[in-house]
Amino acid sequence: MERIDGTGARSVQKTPEEEATALESIQFTDEIHRLISAPSDNASSFTALLEMPPTQAVELLHSPESANLISNDTFKPPHMEDFKGRLHFPTNIALVERAARFSVFAGEGSNNTNIEKNSVETALNDSSANLKKAVKSEPAETESSQPLVSDPTVETKSAKRKEREKKAKGSAKKSKTAANESSDDAEKLPYVHVRARRGQATDSHSLAERARREKINARMKLLQELVPGCSKISGTALVLDEIINHVQSLQRQVEFLSMRLAAVNPRIDFSFDSILTAEGASLMDSNFPSIVTPLMWPEAQVSGNRQPYQQQWHFDTLQQQVWGREEVCHNYITPENSLLSYDSSANSATLHPNQLKMEL
Amino acid sequence: MRSPSSLKQEFLKKWMMGLHIYGSLKKKMSLLERKKAIKLSADIAMASARNGTTCWSRALVANASKDEQDKILVQHILGTESERLMKKVSVLPLMSNKRIRSKKVLRRSYGSIRRAKKSNIAASPPNKVLAISIAKRLVRKRTLLLKSLVPGGEFMDEIALIEETLDYILSLRAQVDVMRSLANASELNNKN
Questions:
Q1: Among candidate residues A263, A269, A265, A264, the one with its CA nearest the CA of residue B21
Q2: What is the ipTM of this complex?
Q3: Do residues A256 and A269 make contact, with C-beta atoms less than 8 angstroms apart?
Q4: For residue A285, what is the nearest residue in chain B, using CA coordinates?
Q5: What is the pTM of this model?
Q6: pLDDT band at residue A252, thresholds of 50, 70 and 90?
Q7: I want to staple A230 with a disulfide (CB 3.0 to 4.6 A). Which of A3, A22, A224, A238 is the partner?
Q8: Residue A176: beta bridge partners?
Q9: Using CB atoms, which residue from A212, A254, A347 is nearest to B184?
Q10: Which residues form the IBH1-like N-terminal domain (chain B) (predicted)?
């Protein structure tokens, strides 16, 4: 395909097998040009249409927006070279549709709108006819979208969006239609492109499954980063294990902390004034825990028992930073101790319960 | 993204509001009652901080409003959004249940078809197949467990479940942080 620089260069380099893929990528630019060059769509060959220079189209459309489109469009092909692996076709189509919309609603004349509609429909027809050889499943979808074309030109849903483009190892390429073809903005396109890798099944079920699996894996990675200690683990089951443990420990902590709070006050009113005067710091500050712990340290010195408090303090800072399962066992200790005595030793987890009992 | 400190502040505000309401409602409460009150207001405050954007928050609110007593508290904390949230809350689990059920039926049918196909094809070394099936079983078990942990998890599919878990963990962390600092502060305060 000679005319378009970027895609043309790509197709020339690649094997005829992959020209099918290049063809499909050309389809979009092809359609753009066809949309622009309204009346001469009767030619069935690709090249005839593609050789249509964009400047002619400007006169055809008689609108300034199309000039913008053209200027943008001539921008696009060189950019497409850069996007070797990722082609952002929606922008092209969006521009096309926007221009179409403008020219339709700009009220430049009824004949203009008719031309637009016809051009779009014929473009779609042609594209579907031409691409039948290249890609098998495509025309089925474009034809199924034919009935929708009768709606205003905005809803030219032949535009597909490449959601994920793998490296072109694939020999075949299919597209997957979403369940509903909604008629909203070009950005929310219903089709999702999933390229099949070499040697993998290409029926729609396995493709759908693969897309779903990839979604799940991407989100699992996020979770892994969130939960500490999970990034080293490989394998879904073990990661899920860690996540479950983490959630359980957090929930248990909430339980125990609420028990502590209930024990602290005879009535549940936490008057901030008294707390603030004691602390000299605002609870709103997220650095509150770090402020509390240094204050505990002078407390410890007053009571005269250094060692357990040292460990206590050290452990408390650890606690803030490390979200681990160790916390759970400490929280087992704390509520019980706080109930027995309102000693500061109950404040945060101690390493050894025996030590604590000795102090009491 | 929502910053953690703003989340904490919002949580704290709403939590205190809930506690004040509780305090005004009942004068004398036993330890356990107090604990329940604290935990409940904390949970509702956490859920309302998300404002109905996440599924778990809605499920939490729904569970809380089942009990007539707690419903009052819920409505107080949520304030004006309570009506809107209640509508969302009541509708959602029913609809998602149906959706999930139909999805499960579909998936089971796909599975049986594929299994029929596979039986014709020569099986790969049985060890591999066994390992894969075991792994799948493990993952399924754990997904069920996770669904039971996250509020409203039974109604979600796997993808949504993972997103919800993410959000839930973040909110839980913020909650625990605030509660712990408050507990530390008040205990220190009591000593003085």
A1: A269
A2: 0.80
A3: no
A4: B5
A5: 0.49
A6: very high
A7: A224
A8: A192
A9: A347
A10: 5-67
